[in-house]
Structures are given as C-alpha cells and as structure tokens.
Amino acid sequence: MVSNADALSSGYQGGSYRRKKQVRHIFRQIFAHGLLVPLAIIFMLPYFWMLSTALKTDRQVFAWPLVWIPDPVQWSNFPEAIQFFPFWQYLANTLQLCAFNIVGQLFSCTLVAYSFACIPWRGRNLLFLATLGTMMLPYQVTMVPIFIVFSKLGWVDTYLPLILPSYFGSAFFIFLLRQFFMSVPKDLFDAAKIDGASYLRVYAQIVLPLARPAMFTVALFQFLNSWRNFVGPLIYLSSSEKYTISLGLQFFKLEHDTKWQLLMAASIMLTAPIVVLFFFTQRTFVQGIAMSGIKG
C-alpha cells in the first residue's frame, strides 16, 4: 500500500511538473509573438504607407521629414481617383473574368483530379506526372506560341484567350484536388458501387459535397490570379473599354504619374477586396490547404 506521505510527494511532483510545463509554454508563446509581431509590423509598413499617401494632399506627399499621419485627411482623393478613369467599368470587366475563370477551373480540375485519384485506369500515374511536369514551364516560354494560336483564331482583343485556358485545367489545382480526393475514405466509393452508382454519380453526390473546402481554396486562388492578372490583358486586349482594373491602373499611372495620392487611392481600392476576402475566409482557406495535404 502507498503511504500518505508517498501520495503527497507524488502529487506535489506532478503539480510541479505541470507548472513547469505551463511556464515553458508561456515562454514559448512570448518568444513566438515577440518574433512575429515585429515581422508583421514590417510587412504592414508598405500597405500603411500606401494608405497614408492616399489620404494626403500634394504638399504632404513630397514633404520632408516624411508625413506618416496626414493632416488634414484628404478623403476626396478616392472619389477623385475614380473619376480619372472608368473604374466601375474596369471593375465589372475584372469580376466577369474572375467568375468565368473560377467556374472553368472548378469544372475541369475537379473532373481531372477525380479521374487521377478515384478511377483506376492504366497509365494514370504516368499521365499525372506529365501533368505535374507542365508546372516547370514558365509562362514566358509558352506566351508567344499561345498568342500565335489565338491570333490565328481571331480571338485577340476578346476575353476568350483569358477565359478558355481555365476550362482545360491547371496542373497545380489538379494536384491540390487530387490530394484531397485521395483522403476520402474508400468505403464510401465501395458502398456507392454496391448500390449501382456510376463514376459520375459518385463524383456528383459523394466527392463534390465532401470537397467543398478544397474547391473553395481553388476558387480563392483563381480569384486572386484573375484579379491581379496584368500580363494577359496587356497582351490580348487593345480596346480600352475591355480593360481590367489592373491594366486600367497602369494606364492611369502613365497619364497621371505626378498624382501620387490619387494613384495610391486607386491602388487601395484594387488591393482592399483581396485583403477583406482573405480576412473573412482565412479559416476555410487554411482548412482546404491542410486537408489537401493529408495523403500523398
């Protein structure tokens, strides 16, 4: 039998160990936050300077020493920046491209990834490696031959060259979705096959509902890519009424290069939707990335 003294000694040692563990955890948290907070401030400085410049007057923009807090705050820079170029038209064009590209990527990439992950067929692993190999080709290598093809088709100065490639899939998104589909329990597929479900029915009624976090991640990535795409619209669009917001911002800079406060105001309106979107969707975004890497 254990004596009362031994029990008290054992309880005291256990409590001391827990306190030491809590102290170590607190020190680790203090060290991590002490490292991350200064880094976050450093990364936020350019955005804060852009916001500060967007609210300044002409004199404050070039003042020395630097003016970090504008006084007075020039809120009129934002509506004035919109008036200098057709902001709302370019915004509508950009959102239209984003919507079509998201639908195309989700449609094509989910089908291809489902085939690679869930349907056994000869040569699928070899073809999957070939698909991943296309990620090593930079856009600058394929830019000229693709432009020649679209030029021969007469699609230059249309949105087709900016939308159609999304309906043929993206190697990165296919890889991301394949990794998620491989984490789905095989028992669900076997049960569906026993009930007589076809591959397409399994894809529509089992795989897609379970893949919402991964699909949301793909949609978010594609939205960011389409929103900030500059090279594609620059190459294929020549009519000013078809410009996207990133291309319109560049021409705004060329025409009004001395109006830095207006340029920063327009840049804020370009980047703010991305920041707000990620702020409200970061949990689902991180969940989709984490769940897509469960199984290799």
CATH homology-level superfamily of the largest domain: MetI-like
Q: Helicity range of the residues?
A: over 70%
Poorly predicted segments: none
What is the terminal-to-terminal distance?
A: 52 Å
- What's the SSE pattern? HHHHHHHHHHHHHH
How many discrete structural domains? 2
Overall, the morphology is flat
> Which CATH architecture of the largest domain?
Orthogonal Bundle
Which characteristics define this entry?
296 residues; MetI-like fold; 2 domains; 0% strand
Structure overview:
The protein has helices spanning 4-54, 58-61, 77-84, 87-118, 124-133, 139-153, 160-163, 171-181, 186-194, 199-210, 212-227, 231-236, 245-255, 260-292. The longest helix has 51 residues, at 4-54. 75% of the residues lie in helices and 0% in strands. The chain is flat. It has 2 domains: 4-54; 84-292, MetI-like (MetI-like fold, Orthogonal Bundle), CATH 1.10.3720.10. The model has no long low-confidence stretch (mean pLDDT 81). It has 296 residues and is an all-alpha fold. Helix 1 packs antiparallel against helix 14 and helix 11 (212-227) runs antiparallel to helix 14 (260-292). It contains 14 helices and no strands.
Outline of this structure?
With 296 residues, the protein is an all-alpha fold. 75% of the residues lie in helices and 0% in strands. The chain is flat and about 75 Å long.
Secondary structure topology:
Elements: H1 4-54, H2 58-61, H3 77-84, H4 87-118, H5 124-133, H6 139-153, H7 160-163, H8 171-181, H9 186-194, H10 199-210, H11 212-227, H12 231-236, H13 245-255, H14 260-292
